[in-house]
Each structure stands twice: as C-alpha cells, then as structure tokens.
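To fix ideas, we give here one paired sequence and structure record:
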Amino acid sequence: MRAAVKQGRSRAWGVLALWVVVLAVALPFSGKLADVTQNRVVDYLPDGADSTQVARIQESLPGGGSTDLVLVYHREGGLTAADRAAADAQLDRIAREHRLTTRPEAVPAPDGSTLMYPVSTTEVDPDGPARVEFVEQVRETVRGGDGLTAEVGGPAAAATDADKVFESLDGPLLWTTVTVVALLLVLIYRSPLLWMVPLLAAGAANFLANATVYALHRGFDLTVTGQSTAVMAILVFGAGTDYALLLVARYREELRRHERPYEAMTAALRGCGPAVLASSGTVAAGLLCLLVADLNSSRGMGPIAAVGVLCALVAMITLLPALLVLLGRRVFWPLVPAYGSEPRAGRSLFAAMGGSAGRRPVTVLLTGAAVLGALALGSLNTPGPLKQEDGFVTTPESVTAQTTLTRSFPDQSSRPLAVVVPAKAADTALARIRGTARVVSAEPGRSADGWTEVSVLAQDPPESAGERTTIEALRTTLAGLDGHVGGSSAQQLDMEASNAADLRRVVPLVVLSVLLILILLLRSLVAPLLLVAAVIAVWAAALGIGALIFGPVFGFEGTDPGLPLLTFVFLVALGVDYGIFLMHRMREESLAGAEPSAAALTALRATGGVIASAGLVLAATFGVLLSMPMVALAEMGFFIAVGVLLDTFLVRTYLVTAASVALGRKVWWPGPLSRPALQPAPERTPGTPGATPDPLKVP
C-alpha cells in the first residue's frame, strides 16, 4: 500500500519536473511573441486585396513605402498672421531635421480657421520602429498655445497611436484577467489556498501558448495580431479555469470515496476526462475552421485561439492534477472533504429551475425562443461599419486632428487615396482618374519597376459613403489598365468586403464540423441539432443586444466588420462546449435506464453548478476586454460575455432541458437510446461513480 502511495507521489513529482523543463524552454520564446505581432490594417487584409497590392508595390518604389502625416493648425474664429508664421517656422524646422519628399504647401480651410500641411518622407520605414520615433519628433516640434491648437494626424500618426494602444494591452489585460479569475475562484471554492492552484496551472499554460504561437509564426509565417493574442490569453484563463472547475469538483467527490489523493485523482480523471477532452476538441475544431478565411487576421486567429485552448487543456489534465495530489486534502481547507464523509444535503437551485422546466416544457421552450427572437431583432439597429478614427475608446491625437480636418474641409478629403498604375499607361490612367466624378485632384509621384504612384484627393470626407463610391468608381475605371486603388479608406473598404465573404464561407463550415463531432459523441442526430440551433439563437440574441446599447450606452460609433464572424465562431464553439457537459451526462443517465425526463432533470441538477461556475468565469474573462482601449476588443468582449451568460442561464438551464423533456426519447433519434429499453440498467444517483458533482454545493 505504501509502495502505491509512494509511486503515485513520484509520478506527480515527475509531471511537475517535466513542466519545469517545458517552461524553462518556453519562457525565452514566450517573451518574443510581442516582437512579431503585426497591427497594420494591411497585415489583416488578404494578399489579393486591391489595397494590399498597392501597399506591396509602394514598398518596392524608391525609398520604399512613404510615411505620411498631416499637420493641423486650428483656431476658432480664424487663424492670425502670427499663427501662420509659427506654423511655417515649425515646418521649416521639420524640413531641416528630416528629409521630406517635398516641401509641403499650406492648404487653408475655406473659413480660414484651419491650415493643413501634408508631410511625407521616404527616409523612414512606415512599418518599422523608426516611424514611431519620427512621429514623436514631429509632435515635439508642432506646438500650439494661446488658443491655437496644433495636432499631428495622418496614416503614420494613426498607426503610431494604434501601436501604443496594443503595446499597453499586454500587461493590463493579463493582470486584470488574472485578478478577475482569482476573485471568482475564491468565491466558488471558499478556500484561501485552492484558488491559487488552477491559476498557477493557467499561468503556465499561457507561457506555453505564447511560445507555441511564436514557433508557429516562425515556422509557417502565421499572422499574429494584437487582437488574436489578447483573445488567446482570455481563452487560456477562461477555458482553462472551466476545465479546472470540472476536474476539481469531481476530485473533491472522489476524495470522499478514496483514502489516497492519487487514487481519487485517477478516478476523477477517468470520470470527467472524456467530457473535458470532447469539449476542448470541439472548441478547437470550431476555431480551426477560421483557417479557410481569406482575411489574414481571421485566418491567424483560428490556430492561435486553438493553441490557447489546447495548452489550457494540457495544463489542466497534467499540471493541475499533479499539484493537487502533492498538496493533498489540505488544499481544500477549511472545507476539507474527509474520507468516508457525505456532502451536506441541500436544495439545489438547479433542481428548482429544472423542475419548472420539466412541468411545462413546451411553454418554457416557446417563451424562451420568443425572448431570444425578440432580442435578435435588435440586430436590425446595428450601427454602420466602425471607422478608423472611431476605433479608440480614448481619443488619441491623430483622431482629433482628423475630426478637425473633416469639420474644416467639408467638401474635400484630407486623406489622399494611393493609386498605382503601370508606368507605360500612366498618362492614360491619370486622364481617367482626373475625369472620374468627385475627384478633386490627382498628382503623379514616384515611378520604378514598371509602376507609377498617383496621389488622389476625393471630394468627400474619409470613409464616407461618397468617398467609398469614388474608390469603387476608380477601381472600375482602372480595371482595364491593371491599376490598383489603396490607402487607409480603401483598406477599410477591402476589410469589410473580406469579412463579408469570410462570413459566408466560414459559418457553414463551423456549423457542419461542430455538428459532425456532436453526432459522433452523442450517437444522435436530434440532440446535436438542438445544441447547434440553441447556440446560433444565442449568437443572434447577443448581436441584437449589442446593437441596441453600443451607441446609447457605450458611445461606440460603429461595429467592427469582423465581429459577426469571430463572435459566431467563439459563441458556437464555447456554447457547444457547455452543451457537451449537459448532454453527455444526460446520455449517461439514459444509458443507466433513467426515463428521458428524469435523465434531463438529473443531468441539470448534477452539471448545473459546473456550467454556471464555468459560464461566470468565461463571461468575466471576456468581459475584461470591455476595459481595453480598443473599440473592436471591447465590442468582442461584450458580445461573447453576454452570449455566454445567455447560454449558461437561459439556454442550457431552461431551453435545452425543456426541449429534452418535451422530446423524450426522440432527442436521441436515430440512436438506440431513442427506442424503449428492453431491460433498463440500475439507475444511478448523483454522487455515485460517473456522476458529475456540483462545485457550488457546500461539502
């Protein structure tokens, strides 16, 4: 007996030592992930997009891509002669300190309140670290005062401001997530010690995930963005804590039946391991469907998020069990589960909720479906696409400069469109561009390698409906000449088009792949269809809620074009994850001979606490994104958090349970469980081997 105990502890020490080695190897590479993160709009776009072609061609022109700024001087009531002299002096200093493409000429606003100076240089790589230094030096030079405002805007300034925001995400996001998860674990476990163990395992998984993603980038040129790494960190802690909740709850119960922690952990892993493996595998499979997306950022998000989930899984079924075994029963102090004891009986909240769903299942089902449908109608109020200048929660200088320009130049764009045409057709292309409706000016620029660059000013403000029409007209005009239209506004237009195409391509694949996995797991067709339909309804309802409150409550001026696709993938994958916990237990009860209604209600009583705890943790971790300074991240966090809460406390608790009771054995059609059992097996009761314990019950 002592030999078995010693062997069990030795294995736990071995697992712990292996993790120490893995982390020692992973830590140096984990820290390098930030160095390969790309946050330019062009990095998000597919290689075949028109604006991507422009950016690539510009990089091959003399001097490479240009770094473009706009200096904006403004005084309410009109600029004075002293204001203009100060602006000219500051521009002269910038021209002396930096090699500009040309000496910019002042462009006055019609009302005389604003001066605009377009500044461009090719001595600075627009995508390199020198660009940030260049922008900061220009901002140090450009000064206002005494009623004169002086701001630096333009594409390079906006990119610098975005870089600062993404650089600020890593620390606050990670520590806020850790704090939120720690507080929830303390409340769930009511122990001063136990909460640290899952959190430590999740932290180790996060280091491993960062190193793995860095290796994938180096080996396969995987696109890594600030958005994808933020979501990966959320998933590592959120999904990892979910798996820990299920395992720890089962381990607590097994400690009452087994004297030795190692034996109790072995039984716990055998009992809940299949459900954890199946749920994490389903989530990863759903996320990997993003690999077929055309958008680089979405295609990279899939494997990065899947790596986060799988690393969390590995940590929670290896490192977490080893730590719990080595710490023994005392880790549960003060609520230590004694060997041979029974958990304190008490009325379960989920028993009461299940009872209400079981008494009138059809009424509950129709009422819940009506509620979700009404919420989904809110999506008809969805605001338009999020503009580049509206993408920050806290407005940076580049955005305020653009706002001033838009107000001061209502009949002229202050952001040039970048057009590249074959050099041999440059004259013809220039004539066609100038003849295009709503084009104010078109000036040729650099020329090399068979391409000529043309800077085009549209009449309408950036990212307005009029400018979009102009971009589309230019693309139609230049199509026969092999010309391309790019620049910031064209990139946003291409982003929306790519997201719309990816939505049509990825959504059916996600539904089909998740459905097939559920069919294989549950040996049924009706139950998987029920689960998938439920999570799609949750997604639609979450979109509707977001559309109704984004503007009035949060003040967001639009919706990120990529949100419908990404939130669909995450909510379907994560929602089905919880459905597996419930339906897998329901199937176990049915196999044990329980009648369909009894199996559904027993499954809810047994897994309700696990699902509620997991849902709260996952919603809270995604809710952390609401505190981030990027509107796209805040919107994603809100959508997924609301969707997870709807799924946890409405769909899983009431609708799926009510539908299962109403359908009876038909829920397992066409599998053998859909037919009456000839000789039912002895019925199990919660708490026996195979049952899933409720972590919210006081032991």
In short: The longest strand covers residues 439-448.
